[in-house]
Write a structure and sequence with these properties.
By secondary structure, the protein is mainly β. It is built from one helix and five strands; from the N terminus they run βββββα.
Length: 63
């Protein structure tokens, strides 16, 4: 999901390194977000099941 804004309003949640306990794949660069790395979670308000974990840099550069 490269453009979560297409689903309407979104919520951006900041995940601190101590909260990051699982590995994810960033949709911005398709690389790992390892456990222990702070990042952001993007949650479409109307479709919360489509939330995605992004590197902060990838999220900031997406536009």
């Amino acid at each position: 999901m490269k453009n979560p804004e297409a689903f309407g309003e979104i919520e951006v949640k900041s995940i601190q390194p101590y909260q990051a306990v699982k590995k994810y794949i960033c949709p911005g660069c398709n690389r790992d977000i390892p456990a222990g790395l702070g990042h952001v979670v993007i949650v479409p308000i109307e479709a919360p099941d489509l939330r995605r974990h992004w590197h902060r840099g990838c999220w900031n550069k997406r536009i």
